[in-house]
Amino acid sequence: MIVTNAKVYTQNDAMPTAEAFAIEDGKFACVGSNEEVRQWAADRAKAAEATGDAKAAEAAVPELDLGGKFVMPGIIDSHTHIAMSAFMGGDDDDDEFPMYDCKSKAEILDKLKAMVKKHPFRLFYAMFYGQIEALADDPLTRDDLDKIVRFRPVVLMENECHSAFLNSAALRYFKIREDTPDIAPGLSRYDRDEKGRLTGFITEMTLVPILAAQKPSKKELRFGITKLLSYLISRGVTTIFDAGNMTDEDMIFRTFKEMDEEGKIPVRMFMCHMLWHPDMVPSAIEELKRCKAKYETDNIRFETMKMMYDGTQRIHTACMVEPYADTGTSGGTLISESELLEFMRALNHEGIDFHLHTVGEAAMRKVMNCVERLQAEGATADGAADEAAGGEPFRITVTCAHDEVICLEDIDRFKELGIVANFTPSWNGGNCGSEPENMQRLLGLERGLCTLQSRTIFDTGAVVSFSSDEVELHNLEHWSPFWGMEVGMTRQDPDFGEPLEDGTLDGRTAPIYPSVDERLTLSQLIKGYTINGAKQLGIDDRLGSIEVGKDADFLVLGENLFEVDPYRLHEVIPERVYVKGRVQSIV
Ligand SMILES: [Zn+2]
């Protein structure tokens, strides 16, 4: 097929725009002007004639005239959680684990009372209560919950799944005792009062057994995966990095493999083995290899190790160089810098890429120090490995995801060390409870004004990739890369604006999340959602741009993205989505 009369934004620096391209065997075979591509088709027919293949010579190459429409490469969502979202809630109407957005402790307790009244015989009560900020001035404790439910477990989960409140029966149910050690101090911990008594507040990866207890049926899991993939394809996503699962990796990977064998995975899925407990580190490489051997298919690949290296600043678990302004604590990391160095050295030896959750400034610095050290070990001035130092050439891609608070001294190190910075632009409008006042309370006035600096890092020349990093099945539009592009460009969240008269969302009236200088350009956003995502995944030799030899993944849009009002970008839906030269319909 040849595609002509299009405005093609190739993301190939050597030829940023084109009019036309040809597709053969699922790959771009020619990219250029209308004449060049038509000439390619004519030459191809001639060549077929010369070889005596009369049938091929006669078959005219079909031409798709796009009449000036906008074309860009298929989108790469380089960090999101399809399986985890499907795992936690395959059903929209989830009365078992409802989601609220309570604004105070009293409201949370009222919701719990109402739930108990509605379901008096339930053996286990669980709900998402809202954001932790609802409790900033008036913390909840197990005693508050015990007054409502004494003998049966109650779990109140923060909507972002980084912490929870448990009553005494839930602590007992999950075998959390006064002497249970924290998983990682400062990070995944069981909160205790001055006397060492558990308060019922637990953070980060201590939640894993609770999430595992919500195990879905296979049917629910498949329902959730199908729902999310259908939506993502409809919004132009053709390649996904699934950034990890905390439990039941085998069940999840098996389900993906089965679905792929049934032809129900029409995108490329890059999976990882996720480490959330220090005890998982020694066997991690073997485990990733086991999953790869067992579950890999053409569409489902296992090339990456993922580590939850720190937490979030909102519950003081992200690891900081300068302590939190309100508590004076500094958070923590899953393993120490020296343990990380050893692990990264082993990954490099195996050629396994490394993707880390790093929110705080100290977490990123530790990763950077390790990369710097291994690069130094691996290369002398003439580029050969310094074997005297025991080094191997450093060849893996290391990605730091989230990167919310970064020290000024470290900003240039992404570029210098070749570390990929992965960001989720939909957070740049200050959702996730990271309102400026809240950030200033946690981080101090100045540092609180300088978070989510994706523009600054992009402008250093580093590889910056963009993703949706979603973990839920509600509000599907937050998964859309075009929603991410709008918030990335404006630093205003459509959800926080005054809706227009017709009820549609309008980010224009939403507060601008500081700093306004961090607004990204549309060109940067497209790059981060395409070629830079391919670089992160090590597939830029075959994906990420419209370039001869690469897979023919591309989107046709009814309007030129560069001419769309930035405040309407979130409504953009591609007219057609092609994977390897074929139109993808909804699975
Ligand atoms: Zn994530």
The radius of gyration over CA amounts to 25 Å
What integer is the average pLDDT?
92
Q: How many alpha or pi helices? A: 19
What is the CATH homologous superfamily assignment of the largest domain?
A: Metal-dependent hydrolases
Overall 3D shape = globular
Q: Give the strand content.
A: 15-25%
CATH architecture title of the largest domain = Alpha-Beta Barrel
Question: Brief description of this entry?
Answer:
This protein has 587 residues and is of the alpha/beta class.
Which secondary structure elements does this structure contain, and how are they paired or packed?
Layout: E1 2-9, E2 17-18, E3 20-24, E4 27-32, H1 34-50, H2 54-58, E5 63-73, E6 75-80, H3 82-88, E7 99-102, H4 105-118, E8 125-130, H5 142-146, E9 154-158, E10 163-166, H6 168-173, E11 190-192, E12 198-203, H7 208-212, H8 218-234, E13 237-242, H9 249-261, E14 268-275, H10 284-295, E15 300-308, H11 337-350, E16 353-358, H12 361-378, E17 398-402, H13 413-417, E18 420-423, H14 436-443, H15 445-448, H16 454-459, E19 464-466, H17 481-490, H18 522-529, H19 531-537, E20 554-557, E21 576-579, E22 582-583
Parallel strand pairs: 1-5, 6-13, 7-8, 8-9, 13-14, 14-15, 15-16, 16-17, 17-18, 18-19
Antiparallel strand pairs: 1-2, 1-3, 3-4, 5-20, 9-10, 10-12, 11-12, 20-21, 21-22
Helix pairs in contact: 3-8, 8-9, 11-12, 17-18
Bound molecules: zinc ion (ZN).
Describe the structure.
With 587 residues, the protein is α/β, with parallel strands linked by helices. It has 4 domains: 1-73 and 544-587, Urease, subunit C, domain 1 (Roll), CATH 2.30.40.10; 74-90 and 217-300, Translation Initiation Factor IF3, CATH 3.30.110; 97-212, Diaminopimelate Epimerase, Chain A, domain 1 (Roll); 309-520, TIM Barrel, CATH 3.20.20. The chain is 31% helix and 20% strand. It contains 19 helices and 22 strands. The strands form 3 sheets. Strands 1, 2, 3, 4, 5, 20, 21 and 22 form an 8-stranded mixed β-sheet that branches. Helix 4 (105-118) links the parallel strand 7 and strand 8. It starts with a strand and ends with a strand. The site of zinc ion (ZN) has 4 residues, from loops. Zinc ion binds next to loops.
